[in-house]
Amino acid sequence: MKIVVTGGAGFLGSHLCDRLINSGHEVVALDNLSTGSKENIMHLLDNPNFEFIQIDLSEKLPEDLKAAQIYHLASPASPNEDSPKSYHKLAFETMQVNTLGTWNMCELAQKLGAKILFTSTSEIYGEPLEHPQKESYRGNVSTTGPRSVYDESKRFGETIVAAFERSKDVDGRIVRIFNTYGPRMDEDDGRVVVEFITAALRNEPFPVFGDGEQTRSFCYVSDLIEGLVLAMNTENTRGEVINLGNPDEYTIKELAQKIKELTESESEMVFEGERPEDDPSQRCPDISKAKELLGWEPKIPIDEGLEETIKYFRN
Ligand code: NAD
Ligand code: UDP
């Protein structure tokens, strides 16, 4: 089957391309390389079943694109304001790709009669007043705060997919991804797992924002990719919104301690002041819907996933 993966040169997108190619599919990866890298797909470039097209999805798409399925992952994803690859620094590009880009991909799905899967985010729940977060929770998001360029454009992206599904007969579904980590994460984009692993390997301090009592739930990349493939291919997922993530919840302090132990590092935590504005104080997915509908749940325990990720960054 021919499958388009947008954001195919990114962290998650490149693992998805691998998974689809290994299952015998033809894959066309679309990416503008704004936060992704050709390094992530270098090993696929000579594969006759793989094609890479460098393109900005917010602009016009090539006329001759063909596919039976579209995984739409393209979007900056890092909240770290200091990184040039964050959605803060790429604010307008982030808003465009999640709205115009999503619209373009839905039009393509309509034209081709292709299925589409849009990767939304746990960020659409904002600072959650319900814990853990179920798909039915509508969120607590600032429309104008510093994270709004990402959160609100993902929210509108969901609206676009839902409207094409409802009114234009597009076979669309939405996956809300919770923090996912693993090899090929960008060393410079500032997300916490990479910051802590690279700090540990250099015996430098772990930079903790706030008191480190905020929580996140970390899903290993291979688990997440299986969830995406199931969400695309399982019957009765059309029109559905599905959380994918690992429900094991840790404070950021606990994460630092875990990484310290696994790397046998001498690093200590350093408290860098207030948490960034609108940084959620807790986050944990309720995955009962994914369990029921897809028969999916994460399999990789955090220690094993972190070991693999540490191995990648050691090399
Ligand atoms: P990433 O930055 O590694 O990958 C995103 C890819 O999209 C990059 O290769 C980038 O170059 C590409 N891209 C960005 N704008 C584009 C545009 N206008 N046109 C074409 N390509 C463009 O990030 P990731 O972690 O792999 O995230 C992939 C998707 O999953 C994103 O939509 C993100 O919002 C979502 N997500 C990820 C996580 C996570 O923890 N990794 C959590 C929630 C949601
Ligand atoms: N964080 C931290 N130090 C860092 C990077 C992140 O303490 O160097 C915290 C951040 O404030 C947040 C959590 O770790 O509370 C997760 O941050 P990340 O950037 O990975 O993603 P988020 O879940 O906020 O989208």
Automatic annotation (TrEMBL):
Q: How does it sit in the membrane?
A: Single-pass type II membrane protein
Main location class: Golgi
What cofactor is this protein dependent on? Answer: NAD(+)
User: What Gene Ontology terms describe where this protein resides (cellular component)?
Assistant: cytoplasm
Name of the protein: NAD-dependent epimerase/dehydratase
Stretches assigned to the NAD-dependent epimerase/dehydratase domain: 3-245
Localization recorded for this chain is: Golgi apparatus membrane; Golgi apparatus, Golgi stack membrane
State any single GO MF term: UDP-glucuronate decarboxylase activity
InterPro entries the record matches: Epimerase_deHydtase (IPR001509), NAD(P)-bd_dom_sf (IPR036291), UXS-like (IPR044516)
Q: Which GO terms describe its biological process?
A: D-xylose metabolic process; UDP-D-xylose biosynthetic process
